[in-house]
From TrEMBL:
It comes from Dokdonia genika. PROSITE patterns: DPS_1 (PS00818). CDD domains: DPS. Residues 19-155 form the Ferritin/DPS domain. InterPro entries: DPS_DNA-bd, DPS_DNA-bd_CS, Ferritin-like, Ferritin-like_SF, Ferritin_DPS_dom. This is Dps family protein. Belongs to the Dps family. Pfam families: Ferritin.
Length: 157
C-alpha cells in the first residue's frame, strides 16, 4: 500500500511535484521583481499604457506566487522563501534598469516561455500523480499565459 499524505496523494509523487512547484515559485519571484522594475522605470511615449499594464501583470504574478506557495504547503512540503534560494534556482534572471517598453516586453515574453515550459512539465507530473489540484492550477496558468503571449506579441508588431 502506498504512503499517502493528508490529501490522499502518494507522498513520493507529491514531494516531486512540490519540488517542481518550488522551482516555479523561484522563477515567479524573479518574474514579479522584473515586472515591478519595468513598472517603476518605464519611459517614453507609451509610458501611461505600459505603466498600467506592468502593474496589472505584477499584481497577477503576486497572486500566483501565493497560490504556488500554498499549493506546496497543501502537498505537505515547505515553499522556498528566501531570495538567496530564488536566485540559485531561477532560470529567469533579474532585468535591471530597463526603461524601454520594447525591451521590457521582450523580457516578459522570454520569461513567459520559461514559465510555460515549467508549468507544462508540472502539469504532466501532477497528472501522472492524480493530483487534480495542481493540474487545475497549472491548466489555468497555461491558458492565461498563452493568451498573454499572443497579446504581447501582437502589441510588439
Amino acid at each position: 500500500m502506498k504512503n499517502l499524505n493528508n490529501i490522499g496523494l502518494d507522498v513520493t509523487s507529491s514531494q516531486q511535484t512540490a519540488e517542481e512547484l518550488n522551482d516555479l515559485l523561484s522563477n515567479y519571484q524573479m518574474f514579479y521583481m522584473n515586472l515591478r522594475g519595468f513598472h517603476w522605470n518605464i519611459r517614453g511615449k507609451r509610458f501611461f499604457e505600459l505603466h498600467l499594464k506592468f502593474e496589472e501583470l505584477y499584481n497577477d504574478a503576486l497572486i500566483k506566487v501565493d497560490e504556488i506557495a500554498e499549493r506546496v504547503l497543501t502537498l505537505s512540503a515547505t515553499p522556498l522563501h528566501t531570495f538567496k534560494k530564488y536566485l540559485e534556482i531561477s532560470e529567469i534572471e533579474g532585468a535591471e534598469n530597463i526603461t524601454d517598453g520594447e525591451a521590457a516586453i521582450s523580457s516578459i515574453l522570454e520569461a513567459l516561455t520559461v514559465l510555460l515550459k515549467k508549468e507544462r512539465a508540472i502539469l504532466s507530473i501532477a497528472g501522472d500523480a492524480n493530483d487534480e489540484g495542481t493540474v487545475a492550477l497549472m491548466s489555468d496558468y497555461i491558458v492565461q499565459q498563452e493568451k498573454l503571449v499572443w497579446m504581447l506579441s501582437a502589441y510588439q508588431n
